[in-house]
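My current task is to audit a protein record that another person submitted. I have pasted the whole thing underneath without changing anything:
***
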Amino acid sequence: MTADKTQKESNIISDAISKVLDEGSVAALATLMSLSENVSSEKRIGAKLLVKESGERIGSLGDAELDVAVSSQAATFLASRDEAKMFSVGEFAPELKQYSGASVLFERIEAEPRLVIAGAGHVGASLARLAALLGYRVTLFDDRAEFVMRELFASPGEQSIELVLAEPWSEAMREAIGNGRGVSVAIVTRGHKQDEDCLRAAISRSADYVGMIGSKRRTNIVLDKLREEGAVENELKKVRAPIGLDIGAVSPEEVALAILAEIVGERRGGSGAPLSSWRRS
């Protein structure tokens, strides 16, 4: 294969990856890492195939049957929530005898996780700092300018936090969420009206996770209000309210930890149960 053709294929894959990230969608990048000795040298180690969540394929590993088998495995890989994993072809396509000793690396392609936080009080600010530490792209907004001043988030690890003055709340929420893919929303405002405005906007965008702080009584008041307005019941049932896991949190920092633990668990497919529970069953 000529250098020009190799470069062209590389550019096509790179452009496709950029599009996946811009769209906020998900894909699996499969790279041929090794081959069996009996396979023709025309099959190039390092060849790449990008498989979108929709099933669309870009690129090729050099064999139509192998591409089909790898595409099928890509769907299984994406469902697993793994970031990367190596498979031998014999594990997922034993019928392809000539490739039984070949190996393929699968890598998840998706934009960095995003967290939109409504309310920059003690809990919201703590949550923003913790989420930024874990690699989330954070947007924090409030209608009080003094709560979203850069001076309050001045350390190196906090510089990536996007600070927004919410005027009004609903518009800021919709703009921050975008198409909702890969986005978690935490509503931790100071009152019912702000909660209603933010939740109304959040459920209209189909974010991956939506949670709202407050007691059972307070959150039910807000949910009932939206239900009376005609909000879709299935969307309301998805709302985590009260938000977070029960870890006995008291301080703002502990509450932030409880919220982020639930968000990470939802994203990674965790149960939230103690890992040691099997010892006591």
